[in-house]
Amino acid sequence: MRLGVLGAALLLLLVLRAAQSRRGAWPRHGAHRRYTPDWKSLDGRPLPAWYDEAKFGVFLHWGVYSVPAWGSEWFWWHWKGEGRPLYELFMKENYPPGFSYADFGPQFTATFFEPNDWADLFRAAGARYVVLTAKHHEGFTNWPSPVSWNWNSQDLGPHRDLVGELGTALRKRNIRYGLYHSLLEWFHPLYLLDKKNGFKTQYFVSSKTMPELYDLVNRYKPDLIWSDGEWECPDTYWNSTDFLAWLYNDSPVKDQVVVNDRWGQNCSCHHGGFYNCQDKYMPESLPGHKWEMCTSVDKLSWGYRRNMVMASIASEEEIISELVQAVSLGGNYLLNIGPTKDGVIVPIFQERLLAVGKWLSISGEAIYASEPWRVQSDKNTTSVWYTSKGPDVYAILLRWPEDGVLYLTSPKTTLTTKIVMLGLEGDLKWSPNPVQGLLISLPQLPPSALPVKFAWTLKLTGVK
Question: Residue ranges of the chain with pLDDT lower than 70?
């Protein structure tokens, strides 16, 4: 006899609550809170300064979807949720009849995962923060979650606490640690029960989502919580404001923690800490709120794909251009890579990260802890983007002018104006433009002698 969805859900609810009672109930906020559980109060919290100063981070999508490593990290949903023919054909041609998604779990081994090597790579990339998928929409947790029995990295597959190991390695190198967490789980019986009830019940939230979020914060003390999987329900279903009020008032990370804007279907680009708005979001002009562009080296997937080709890999120039533009427009840039099921970061991903790090080793002065200038860009043939730091202005040119003379329209020169190219000694010659701005004579050097091969940075002092 088959157990119905309702019966399975109620049975699972009892198991989860029993597990919760053994570990102790998740924390409640204290009697005296600075922030109340409503958006007007929560949105008034100042963003901790470290996040805006960091500018560049690395995103990691790593989970059971890294085993089939085909299509994308949404493999399970495309296969079973939508029944896409290509996914069904892939399974038929590569796996035996009756093979389930859960059967991928033991093959997620992380055999070659060396957290210190990963942390060294991210430091060399110039990343000031790293965000790991603690749990994606498939529900598999990369830590021993007490409410994810036999579907976590300690019980199954690696038999390791992946979240904890990476966090320890990053903090030894003074890199901030963020955790991605999906609010929903596609096929969890309690979530399906709540959905069937029109989200008027919260069995899944009270027994799974919230216990996990409190556990992540208390156990690992993350600097950032990157929430996702919110889109099917309002924030009132997720109890988001209650959690954030506790996070900001009483949690062990209340003073430094940063969050994004994905806390309910009505929240993106409106409520939370910094705004993601949507994947790969890049505004056309300077927003009035701190934001972040998240994007992926593999343009077609966030998780690792065995069949990716070079045509789908973002070039060094594309990545650095996006970083420059994002920072000029007041944003952060979070660049994603997908490790393999074995815990390997493939060479092409390493190469792209190291290219960013090499560029930042010269031009980081114009990026880290910078602020938007009064003008963000000179959109002429050279495509120049500006940042600033105190009285200094930085002009980053994405194309070298053919005649070697850079025309800038926005800076206003003074008697003390000086211009240098980061990475080179000596001042550059410049002259006022009779119409507007100034003309700068760029170094007459072969490309190999320039400090970087792309996105050259000029530091302007004594300009308005």
Answer: 1-33, 380-382
